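User: Can you fold this complex?
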Amino acid sequence: MAEIVAAMALTHSPGLTGWFDAAPVDQRALALEALGEMRLRLEASRPDVLLMFSNDHLLNWPINNTPEYTVGIAERHVGPADWYDEWLALDKYEVPGHPALARHLVNAGARQRLALAHLRDMQFDDGISVPLHYLNPAMRIPLVPVTMNCTVPPIPTPARAYEVGVLLREIVRAFPGPERVAVIGTGGLSHEPGGPRYFWVDEEFDRWFLDLLKAGDHAALLRQCTLDRMEEAGSGGTAELLAWILAMAFTTGPAEVLAYMPALAWRSGTGMVVWNNLAA
Amino acid sequence: MGSVDRCDKTLPLNQMMFHVRRDRTLRERWRTDLAGLAHEFGLGAAEYEALRDKDVRRLHELGVHQYYVPQILRLFYGASANSNAHPALEAYKRAYPEESAQALELQARLAARGPKEG
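Assistant: Here's the predicted assembly.
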């Protein structure tokens, strides 16, 4: 049976690689320190595979057909997509997949009435590329990417994301192999990509959300942090935090907040957290 | 309900943007024959004119998904060093002066507060 060995979450804003130097020096230093710490903790957990939850930025699926969740099942993944390489200022990379685990997710999900679309040629935008750059720079640890739709209405609720996270946790554990699996949620915090408040971040929301994570009462977080509250804090972007909620479902209790920055230059509330207690 | 709920999922321009971002040939057509490309994807006159005029506010009002709007500007202006001072983003500031002014005020407040509390 597979084992969950780490759970963490971080912002994936394209500014973290594409125009990193546009932010004030203190924010850059804080981000690099936290990302370095995340990488150390990830490596210390000795994962055989990264299960990364992110969101599709209208790249893999057209607006007339946006599955709630999609699993990348390829033997090898290549990114960033052509449209994103200049934007992210990243060279092309290739990272091994883990098709056995990825296909297990799709098929076991179906048996439990969880519809997971899948792609053999998933394209990668900032959601996967930026975290890989910082956390798996040698592209050595195999990746199973799971993207969700959190930007084309109807957007799933946080309660739904948690429910799916719990299901996925049980499905991963039931995988017939000894793999050590690290779970990473990417996205958020407050931002409104392309909306009227494109240059804004909602620091008050971000700190409130991080405090809820630190308090560690998952049910209370789900009661208070509704989809409407996320949308108020940045429409079509803040709901990327659903990926954090998926990761939270693999844990119990509080998260440790490594860093937070209201990074206007990167056009996103920017944060990094680690959960130290994994669900039994 | 946030601003993203204003998108018209059936708008031809939303479909066109999906394909243009994934296809280098279509991106070249964007530069050389935008009117022809728009016609092939079935854009209406208002959609095409808002696109041609890089009219951020009108694109939103017509139901273009808001994530696609900066991407439309990228296709016109390029992506290099996409800071908040990039010409593509100046178009946003013109479209939403009130929201942009609030963001600038926030930026000034954060800068004044200094790194220790950041």
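The first helix of chain B runs from residue 12 to 22. Helices of chain B lie at 12-22, 24-32, 34-40, 45-52, 56-62, 68-77, 87-95, 97-113.
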